[in-house]
Amino acid sequence: MLMKSFDPDIRVLCRLAEAFSNAISLKKTHLHLASRLRWDLFNKYIEWLCANNYVLTDGNTYCLTSSGKEMFAKCLEFNVYLYGQRRT
């Protein structure tokens, strides 16, 4: 289910990418802390990531799919292009 009204922020996606770069799978709480968002907004990101097949979950633990790894790598690359360094 594609969320049409949600437009993710590249900076938040980069913060999540940084969190995943240090672990194969993460608990929802860890991702929430890494996102630095309110819980309700964080849940929109999680729903968007799941709906677009970027992450898989068993309910509490999340892991990247191959398309998720590719998307996060491109986000980080674009972030470096914009800011000249890894800054999130």
UniProtKB/TrEMBL annotation:
Domain of life: Archaea
Matches recorded under Pfam families: HTH_45
Domain ArnR1-like winged helix-turn-helix: 25-79
InterPro entries found in the cross-reference section: ArnR1-like_HTH, WH-like_DNA-bd_sf
UniProt protein name: ArnR1-like winged helix-turn-helix domain-containing protein
